[in-house]
Amino acid sequence: MTKLNGWKMAATVFALCIATVTAAPSQTFKTLADFNGTNGNGSAPAYMALAQGTNGNLYGTTETGGAHFYNDGTIFQLTPTGTLTTTHTFEGTDGAGPLTGLLLALDGSFYGTTSAGGDLSCSAGNGFGCGTVFRITAGGALTTLHAFEGIPNDGQMPAGVLLQATNGNIYGTTADGGAYGGGSIFKMSPVGDLTIWQSFVNEAYPYAGVIEGTNGDFYGTTSMGGFDCNSKLGCGTVYKTASGGMPIILHTFCSEAQCADGAQPYANLVQGTGGDFYGTTTLGGDVTCNAPNGCGTVFKITAGGTLTTLHTFEGADGAAPYAGLIRATDGNFYGTTKRGGLNNDGTIFELTPEGVLTTLHSFSGTDGSIPNGGLLQATNGTLYGTTSIGGPSNDGTVFSFSNGLRPFVAFVRAAGKVGQTGGILGQGFTGTTAVSLNGIPANFKVISNTYLAVTVPAGATTGYVKVNTPTGVLTSNVPFHVIP
User: Fold this and answer.
1) How far is CA 337 from each of CA 24, 267, 269, 309, 480, rounded to the nearest angstrom?
2) Are 226 and 252 in contact, with CB atoms under 8 Å apart?
3) Which residue, among 221, 230, 275, 273, has the nearest Cα to 251 in the 3D structure?
4) Dist CA 330 CA 346 (whole Å)
5) pLDDT digits (tens, 9 = 90+) for 86-114
6) Is 381 helix (H, G, I), strand (E, B) or coil?
7) Distances in Å between the alpha carbon of 72 and those of 1, 229, 393, 409?
8) What was the pLDDT predicted at 180?
9) Among residues of the chain, what percentage have pLDDT more than 90?
10) Which of 267, 257, 172 lies closest to 223 in space, CA to CA?
């Protein structure tokens, strides 16, 4: 099977300016687990950010490796202290080559995709299938919900993380295939009934999933398309889409001289508190860095399509960010670059909303290399992520980075109507005495020390959730949006 972890075979060499990065005393980097390849616990976690489960453990995927001799990848579980367990090894017919992470849905199960496998008669996958959508329980019971059939049917090679929208349906993208061969957006009911929602007319190749904005529209990026990039297939777009019709292009990259605004975004957007969206491009920016392609950018874009470049990578501060950003509890954004830094093995960085970037960690190979995936801030406040290679077996690592950020509570889904019951993730919930939404008391049930079921109270308005635990008050990292 053709795998998409080409950085393990060959790496582009950047001309780097060596810079010294000094970590504050409160910053602690740890390698928590090492992958060990075929007949082991997996290898090469790809464009994947970890997901926190209701039990407080973290879950993710590896693109290759695992106990099965076909080398088709795994799903794994990790305790916050670093004990890694393989919960599923793919075998081809149930999927192969998962590129992205998992979605924790309202039913407590995880949903995800594989880029290949499934119906092995689908020739678009080089004889290895066109990909699947699956559901897996925390205990490891996997159900294949859909096997893709390629062009011109329902698409092939799903690569973006799934989204459960406020309507309860699950949305995702295929990087290829669909009605016109340029990728698609699909909609699936929680029981697995899948339909193509929209297809991209041009060769857009969306490797990112979609996110739901606070206005109810969906937003995403395509890695190509736009047709302004050297008169070829285009250097990517930011788009929005509502319930029906074709995606509306908000911005076409490489529309400025020498791609100063960036090129080829591969990652999801994230919405800030002010309503603007933030994202990364893998290439573009300063074309003298990794000439002539550039080392990538971080951008902000309004819902109306006005784009501002917040930071241009120069190599020493990172290069080629394939992953998107997360907004942490301190109000700043955090992310990774797959290359650049002191050793050209990638970085972890912090970015203020105004665009001031600080390099927090430069990977060195022994602690991991090529962090293709994004970060997760778990509810204990710590950042977690993976590298696709590096470590003792050169098969990738799982790491943590503590920046002194406080514990908080997070939502399984950060929106709901009055009377609906949703889930809250956190820690220390045993003995909880009160839960409130924007100051309005809410009915709750302690399911476990790491999970609460909470009902949206009458009279509640959009705002932050507070949970009164025996050890103190925990506040949500983002507002909960009350749907009219």
Assistant:
1) 20, 12, 16, 17, 30
2) yes
3) 221
4) 23
5) 999 999 999 999 999 999 999 999 999 99
6) coil
7) 8, 35, 18, 35
8) 76
9) 71
10) 267
Mean pLDDT of 144-148: 94
The token pair that represents 437 in the structure block: 């939404």
Q: How many CA atoms lie within 13 A of 378 on its CB side?
A: 25
Extract the tokens encoding 382: 């710590």
> What is the C-alpha to C-alpha distance for residues 333 and 348, in angstroms, rounded to an integer?
11
Q: Give the integer Cα–Cα distance in Å for 152 and 100.
A: 24
To the question of pTM greater than 0.90 for the whole model, the response is yes
β-pairing, 184-188 vs 194-199, is antiparallel
Q: How far apart are CA 46 and CA 64, in angstroms?
A: 9
Residue ranges of E strands in 189-234 = 194-199, 211-212, 218-222
Q: What does each C-alpha distance from 102 to 53, 132, 172, 336, 427 come to in angstroms?
A: 10, 13, 12, 19, 21
Whether the link from the prior residue into 152 is cis, omega within 30° of 0, is: yes
Nearest to residue 172, comparing CAs of 181, 180, 182, 184?
184
CA dihedral sign, ordered 62, 65, 71, 75 = negative
Q: How distant, in Å, are the alpha carbons of 47, 159, 281, 351, 418 from that of 313?
A: 20, 25, 10, 12, 44
User: In angstroms, how far is CA 36 from the centroid of its own chain?
Assistant: 23
